[in-house]
Write a structure and sequence with these properties.
The chain contains eleven helices and seven strands. It has 277 residues and is an alpha/beta fold. It has one domain: Rossmann fold (3-Layer(aba) Sandwich).
């Protein structure tokens, strides 16, 4: 697909992958509506885009997990630029580490990492079915294909995000609705360091498990990979190609893969971290 004159909505756009996607799309001639809960962050992103590409971007402060906010976000996009062609369900949270994460933390992870995707689809799919086309892009994680040491809520909800994207593709793929799911490993964003910032040994080990597993990519690199994949309309977007090999090994011998992950976890613990129990 071509991005020229397309209208894209991006949640979690105040930084990281979301802001990089917005800038990359604007460079390709798209109109972008960038949403975030942090007004100053999203306004800064949009100002930078409009400085280079006048009137290409609009900032909207919205809760990506609230249906009323999603509806308002889409309506503002339509009023500013016309019908929305692409919806990037990109907002995400890490959740608290360990088995004893609070109910509140679990609820937030489910709300932002998966229910936000469901609610966005509930708003967008009827519009796209009427038009005969649309593109839904969800940001999950390599954790959705594999797992995330130390971070159960993150791992579970990213599995769910991937599963929902698969379901959307199966259900609506023959009706003009394209779906892609982004599953990176380490990307240099605030979310990458979330576990460590909690000051918890398990959270620190979780962060180290990601940062030691592969190259830490800049968000601009990820955005370029995403646009290339969307041009080809690929479902699974893997900025770290090695994730596919890991996923295939997991599927080929699940027990062996689990054993290997336990060994990896123990290696991290021996390097000064506490073993998750």
């Amino acid at each position: 697909m071509s991005f020229n004159n397309k209208v894209a909505v991006i949640t979690g756009g105040g930084g990281g992958i979301g802001s990089a996607l917005a800038a990359a799309l604007a460079r390709q001639g798209a109109k972008v509506v960038v949403s975030d809960l942090q007004p100053s962050a999203v306004e800064t992103v949009v100002e930078a885009i409009n400085d280079s590409h006048p009137n290409a971007a609009l900032a909207v402060v919205a809760d990506a997990a609230a249906t009323t906010d999603i509806t308002r976000l889409v309506e503002q996009a339509e009023n500013a630029f016309g019908p929305v062609d692409m919806f990037f369900a990109n907002a995400g949270v890490a959740g608290e580490p360990g088995l004893h994460a609070s109910d509140e933390s679990w609820d937030t992870a489910f709300e932002v990492n998966i229910r936000a995707h469901v609610r966005a689809a509930q708003v967008m799919i009827p519009r796209w079915l009427e038009r005969g086309e649309g593109y839904f892009i969800s940001t999950a994680s390599a954790a959705g294909l594999l797992t995330q040491i130390g971070m159960p809520a993150y791992s579970v909800t990213k599995h769910a995000a991937l599963g929902f994207a698969e379901w959307l593709s199966v259900t609506y793929g023959d009706q003009g609705i394209r779906v892609s799911c982004l599953c990176p490993m380490a990307v240099e964003t605030p979310l990458l360091r979330a576990g460590e910032q909690l000051g918890d040994e398990i959270g620190t080990m979780a962060t180290r498990s990601v940062t030691s597993a592969g190259e830490i990519l800049d968000p601009t690199v990820v955005a370029d990979v995403v646009l290339e994949a969307l041009e080809e309309e690929r479902f699974l977007i893997l900025p770290h190609p090695e994730v596919l090999d890991m996923h295939q090994r997991k599927g080929a011998d699940y027990d062996r893969w689990l054993s290997g992950m336990r060994r990896y976890q123990n290696t991290l613990a021996k390097a000064g971290q506490r073993t998750v129990s």
